[in-house]
Amino acid sequence: MKRLILLLLLVASTGFAQSTNNLITDGKGREVLWGPFEFADLTRPQFVDWYQKGYDNYTPDTQVVKNLKETIGNYQIEVFMGTWCGDSKREVPRLIKLFGDLDMPKANVNLIAVRSDGEFYKQGPNGETLGRNIHRVPTIIISKNGQEINRIVEDPIVSLEADLLAIIQGNYQPQYPIANALGSQLSNDKDRGLSDRKLKKLATEFSDKTSSFYELNTLAYVLSTQSKEQQSVSVLKLNSLLFDNEAQVHYRLGKKLEALGAYDEAVDAYNKAISLKPEMADYSEALERVKSAKEGK
After folding, report:
1. How far apart, in Å, are the Cα atoms of 140 and each of 21, 150, 153, 163?
2. What is the pLDDT of residue 7?
3. Cβ(237)–Cβ(252) under 8 Å?
4. How many Å apart are CA 262 and CA 256, to the nearest integer?
5. For residue 111, what are the β-bridge partners?
6. C-alpha pair distances (Å), 96 with each of 100, 101, 135, 141, 216
7. Residues 216, 234: contact at Cβ < 8 Å?
8. Could you read off the pLDDT of 55-114 as tens digits, one per residue?
9. Domains by residue range for the chain, with CATH
10. Residue 52: in which H helix or E strand, if any?
């Protein structure tokens, strides 16, 4: 308790006052932060238990911290997280502890909370995430002179301080390399899908860089909630090329194409799913449904 009181006093004295308009009840009935927030917001009663535990139990590597201190002030750090997210609850208290050890200037840190429900999935209230390729949280973006250098996605490869140092030294590859690369490319465009030729080229390029189709499924869903449906379709098509033997991948693509009224392509996707798992009644029902829709079009 004494440590918590001292922390609150320190936070207040450095100007990190609690916001009053970013605590909401989401669509799942949970009290969460949404939008820009300050360090002190995580000491609210709703969050303080996991925040304080994570903060107290983390001890950054002193030598790495010493090396980081020499240059970290030249960088800006944006943290996108969810107070509902287990990975964020683990990593963000550690990151704030690290910021304290680094004497990180307040002006160099921007904290943004996102939601997980419905149409607001992985989004902020004022478009803070649009064009930023936030498909997993926490996402910690390191920039210099307004230009992104690299990012830590979901959790660090080694540790927060070691990963930050590797980024500054130019020797870092975050998790989810396909979603990061593809999402960044799509974020710079309007809602235009990629050509089949481009998708085949990307499939060859990324064939050995992922072991799970969930990586791109999540990105596709994020894009869909942002009304970027053609981009979402492109991501699902790429997933079907990378994981051609996964029935679920083709089924998900079929559902998206069906929802958009692309019935011919949806039929092809459902047929592929059925050829891989003919015992799945959902797949056969989906095929019959889209065939009926196509006939009645």
Report:
1. 23, 9, 6, 11
2. 47
3. no
4. 9
5. 37, 79
6. 6, 9, 22, 14, 30
7. no
8. 999 999 999 999 999 999 999 999 999 999 999 999 999 999 999 999 999 999 999 999
9. 2-175 (3.40.30.10), 179-295 (1.25.40.10)
10. helix 48-56
